[in-house]
Design goal:
Length: about 130
């Protein structure tokens, strides 16, 4: 295939005003895109080279903090509609009060909010802290 036109990015490589328009437009510190005093900061390269374990699907994860898992009554109700169970083991989760509980069930979890405990007792269910 014949290349008919040279790309703009290659066309202006040697010039003083590549992508700036007139040379006057690139004079101020507002031209640096929030980088500060014009310094190039290679933080991302350092991270990828020295600590690739910090990069994951969800971005960065601080190694000193535990990940807090929670589940609400709305999700528990949905689980119970699909699977008819008498006990739910939710070790490592804190149960929050959003939603309602329509089933009589025994819930074992790491923690419960006050409102969630009230709603569970109102639904004639039991809550046990593991």
């Amino acid at each position: 295939m014949v290349v008919r036109k040279e790309r703009r990015s290659r066309k202006y490589f040697g010039s003083r005003h590549w992508g700036l328009g007139n040379i006057k437009n690139g004079r101020g510190s507002g031209d640096r895109g929030g980088v500060g005093k014009g310094a190039v900061k290679p933080r991302w390269t350092w991270t990828t080279a020295k600590h690739p374990e910090l990069i994951g699907k969800r971005g960065f994860h601080h190694w000193g903090q535990e990940e807090h898992k929670w589940i609400d009554l709305y999700a528990i109700n949905g689980m119970l509609e699909k699977e008819k169970k008498e006990t739910l083991d939710l070790k490592g989760y804190k149960v929050l009060s959003r939603g309602e509980l329509n089933f009589k069930v025994k819930i074992k979890a790491s923690g419960f909010s006050k409102k969630a405990m009230e709603k569970i007792k109102a639904a004639e269910s039991t809550a046990e802290v593991v």
